[in-house]
Design a protein that fits this description.
Elements (H helix, E strand, L loop, with lengths): L2 H26 L4 H16 E4 L5 E7 L2 E7 L2 E4 L5 E7 L3 E4 L3 E4 L5 E12 L4 H6 L2 H21 L5 H6 L1 H13 L4 H8 L5 E3 L4 E13 L1 H38 L3 H11 L6 E6 L6 E4 L12 H23 L4
Antiparallel strand pairs: 1-4, 2-3, 2-5, 6-8, 7-8, 8-10, 9-10, 11-12
Length: 331
């Protein structure tokens, strides 16, 4: 700001000081003119005051005869010359923005979706640039376009979509370098951790956070990836289940002195994996009731019908009691 602009800006203060000092001088001389001069100084002060609010935080761009000057003032009471100087208020509150998800493609034409968020606030030293960029909304739109263009250039160099998913941090650093021209590694890390402070002079802002969040495949590829992940999870679950049945069967076969196959049938029956019907007593060893799957029945020795029914009833009751003593009630 030039000397003339500075004098015009400070003219209200200069005028108030001159009238006040002169008024005090005449009052000391017991001249009534002194009181008049002090009253004029007070009126000029009241007329010239303008408040720049602090909630939300603001700063003001000085204008002289409507022309914006490269001078800003923080919140508080400021002097102006009505009709000549004034202040344009700019909201200085930090802006937290989630940009539109970006759909980009790697070299294998796979569709990748990426989500970016940022925090910025107007730079008082470049306030006119910020206003020229369209303020908060204009800066957001320009950043959104810049992000999409930079990500497209980054992704096209990736041969496979899997490289994109595995290079999230690389993409974040590439974005910051391209958009902010920041080359200091420590400052870049601070921006990712929301603890940075980097200027983008072309937009008139100070960036404090720039973070790449979601990176995922989209479209049919996403469905295929989810299906594959589900199948992998199911196979892992089946492996755990089979290992459990195997270990339990080995332990049970050893305790009851039965075959592993019979132990597996018994365990699977109790776990509700197969239907069950105990149809006759213990095997010749006397250790285990035979478990019959479904409605299949074994051939029995020929007996009279009445004797067969009685025998079946007795062996069923005996088997059930023996089984429940060992393993609890049958579900």
């Amino acid at each position: 700001m030039g000397v003339i602009d500075w004098i015009i800006y400070e003219l209200p203060l200069i005028t108030i000081v001159i009238f006040s000092v002169t008024g005090i001088y005449f009052l000391l001389k017991e001249n009534f003119l002194g009181l008049v001069l002090l009253m004029v100084a007070a009126i000029i002060t009241v007329i010239s005051l303008k408040k720049i609010p602090a909630d939300p935080p603001n700063f003001g761009i000085l204008t002289i005869l409507g022309e914006r000057k490269q001078l800003t003032k923080r919140e508080g009471l400021r002097l102006r010359l009505p009709g000549i100087t004034d202040f344009i208020l700019i909201n200085a509150k930090a802006k937290n923005k989630d940009f539109n998800p970006k759909n980009i493609r790697s070299k294998d034409l796979a569709e990748i979706i990426m989500q970016i968020s940022a925090t910025f606030f107007p730079d008082p030293e470049n306030a006119i640039t910020y206003q020229n960029a369209g303020g908060e909304e204009g800066v957001y739109n320009q950043l959104d376009d810049m992000i999409e263009e930079v990500l497209r250039r980054w992704a096209i160099d990736k041969e496979q979509w899997t490289e994109c998913l595995a290079s999230k941090e690389e993409a974040n650093i590439f974005l910051i370098k391209e958009i902010t021209n920041e080359r200091n590694g420590d400052n870049i890390k601070k921006l990712i951790k929301a603890d940075g402070k980097t200027k983008i002079k072309s937009l008139g802002i100070i960036l404090t956070r720039f973070n790449l969040g979601l990176v995922d495949v989209a479209g049919e590829l996403k469905k295929a990836a989810e299906k594959k992940a589900k199948e992998t999870q199911e196979r892992a679950g089946e492996t755990v289940e089979l290992n459990f049945v195997r270990d339990a069967a080995l332990e049970l076969a050893d305790k009851l002195r039965i075959s592993v196959e019979a132990a597996i049938e018994l365990i699977q029956t109790e776990r509700g994996k197969v239907s069950k019907q105990i149809i006759r007593g213990l095997e010749r060893s006397g250790a285990l009731p035979i478990v019959q799957i479904g409605a299949e029945r074994t051939n029995r020795c020929r007996k009279d019908e009445d004797e067969e029914k009685e025998e079946r009833k007795r062996t069923y009751e005996q088997s059930t009691e023996e089984y429940e003593e060992r393993f609890g009630k049958i579900k």
